């Protein structure tokens, strides 16, 4: 019998050493735990549809240098932190110095702050390697070379969105491991925008982790925009823990690549907590995108609403796996999940798997999933009224996702998403 593939030892040797001792110790501990880590296969349940797209060569184990050309000088309508190849660039960043709000590099923390952070890292993520489950966020914990700690004291409010621009420079093959930890104190507020872009054409892998902890009454909006190139494998994880009466809102917009993967895990741990998760994915050519979401209703009287929509063209492949887990003590939970999918060609594939796991008896829960194609009757109706067939295709396809795009609370992100979607339509419906 052929042995199961394991992570190459080349991935167990981080390069950067400019971290405080508690974070270096954490990284070493996580690295030791990765020895002989199984790589996902078709039999790995949470990688069933994506394992064949994962290509981790030894060349990719090399940490990409935080130097070279960067486009992160781009102006944004708010505060900005620039990352290049997983390392923060202070000279290209412009963030606030406000009472109650602290934004610091991991490398600038003192040992006491670093020890406190080390105790909390990975706390929002299920990083288990149980049979049938592989979480690649574990690799980030063993390899991160830098990171950003954002702390909001009670009642602190960030008055503008904070843009974090993650750029990978792929002039050579390698990998990058950006890390962000957001600690939102009681009744604090922040909008965080993460943009992922790339330059260069060599094959690289980006493995990113963002964690949010929300105190009582905290309000956090997370916007995630993935626009990396065709040479970039992207494996991301976002973990969220929420306390009483807190609210977390997520808007994810993703454009496909050789491998795109995002695991979003939310735990509603305090009564009255709410979360809203929206996601839009488009794929074309032979691209792949996989969204895995988990919402854990741990406490009573919590609400969750989840809406994801996928569009796949050509021979591309999109995946959605959404799981809602209602724990035994989570009475009066209200949870709704909806996933709609649109196939634009006979060669495209979409796999959807909504899951409900309920252990409480006084709850309101619903989930649904649909997969279909553009309605020929609607196309005929538009064409018969003088609209060209290409324009009719674009109108119907955009209508399918526009509701979610328009809910993104940051105008520049909406505009950027519309620009990229128009490019997608131009390529997909060329000659229609």
Summarize the structure.
This protein has 432 residues and is of the alpha/beta class. The chain is 17% helix and 40% strand.
Walk me through what this model shows.
It is a single chain. It is globular and about 70 Å long. By secondary structure, it is α/β, with parallel strands linked by helices. It starts with 20 loop residues before the first helix and ends with a helix. It folds into two domains: 9-270, no CATH class; 376-432, no CATH class. The relative contact order is 0.10. The longest helix is centred in the last third of the chain and has 18 residues, at 411-428. The strands form two sheets. A ten-stranded mixed beta sheet has the order 2-1-5-8-10-12-14-16-18-20, with helices on one face. Strands 3, 4, 6, 7, 9, 11, 13, 15, 17 and 19 form a ten-stranded mixed beta sheet that branches. α1 (21-33) packs across α3 (137-143) and α4 (376-384) packs across α5. Helix content is 17%, strand content 40%. This is FeS assembly protein SufD. Residues 172-400 form the SUF system FeS cluster assembly SufBD core domain. InterPro entries: Fe-S_cluster_assembly_SufBD, SUF_FeS_clus_asmbl_SufBD_core, SUF_FeS_clus_asmbl_SufBD_sf, SUF_FeS_clus_asmbl_SufD.
């Amino acid at each position: 019998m052929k042995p199961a593939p394991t992570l190459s030892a080349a991935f167990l040797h981080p390069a950067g050493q400019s971290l405080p001792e508690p974070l270096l110790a954490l990284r070493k501990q996580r690295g030791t735990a990765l020895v002989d880590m199984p790589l996902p296969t078709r039999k790995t349940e949470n990688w069933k549809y994506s394992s064949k797209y994962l290509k981790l060569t030894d060349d990719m184990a090399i940490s990409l240098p935080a130097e070279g050309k960067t486009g992160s000088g781009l102006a944004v309508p708010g505060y900005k932190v620039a990352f290049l190849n997983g390392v923060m660039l202070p000279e290209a960043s412009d963030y606030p110095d406000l009472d109650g709000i602290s934004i610091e590099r991991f490398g600038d923390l003192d040992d006491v702050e670093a020890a406190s952070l080390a105790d909390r890292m990975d706390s929002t993520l299920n990083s288990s390697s149980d049979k049938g489950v592989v979480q690649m966020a574990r690799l980030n914990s063993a390899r991160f070379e830098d990171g950003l700690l954002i702390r909001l004291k009670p009642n602190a409010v960030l008055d503008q969105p904070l843009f974090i621009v993650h750029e990978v420079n792929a002039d050579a093959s390698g990998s990058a491991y950006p890390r962000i930890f957001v600690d939102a104190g009681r009744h604090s507020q922040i909008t965080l925008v993460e943009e992922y872009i790339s330059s260069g054409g060599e094959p690289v892998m980006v493995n990113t982790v963002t964690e949010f902890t929300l105190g009582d009454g905290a309000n956090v909006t997370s916007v995630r925009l993935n626009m990396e190139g065709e040479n970039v494998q992207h494996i991301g994880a976002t973990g969220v823990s929420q306390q009483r009466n807190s609210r977390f809102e997520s808007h994810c917009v993703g454009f496909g690549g050789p491998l795109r993967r995002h695991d979003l895990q939310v735990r509603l741990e305090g009564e009255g907590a709410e979360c809203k998760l929206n996601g839009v994915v488009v794929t074309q050519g032979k691209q792949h995108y996989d969204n895995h979401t988990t919402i854990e209703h741990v406490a009573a009287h919590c609400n969750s609403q989840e809406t994801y929509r996928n569009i796949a063209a050509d021979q591309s492949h999109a995946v959605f796996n959404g799981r809602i887990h209602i724990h035994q003590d989570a009475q009066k939970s209200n949870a709704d999940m909806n996933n709609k999918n649109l196939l634009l060609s006979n060669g495209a594939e979409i796999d959807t798997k909504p899951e409900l796991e309920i252990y409480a008896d006084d709850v309101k829960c619903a989930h649904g999933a649909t997969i279909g194609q553009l309605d020929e009757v609607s196309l005929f109706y538009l064409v018969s009224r003088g609209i060209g067939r290409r324009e009719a295709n674009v109108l119907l396809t955009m209508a399918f996702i526009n509701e979610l795009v328009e809910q993104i609370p940051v105008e520049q992100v909406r505009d950027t998403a519309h620009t990229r979607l128009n490019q997608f339509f131009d390529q997909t419906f060329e000659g229609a």
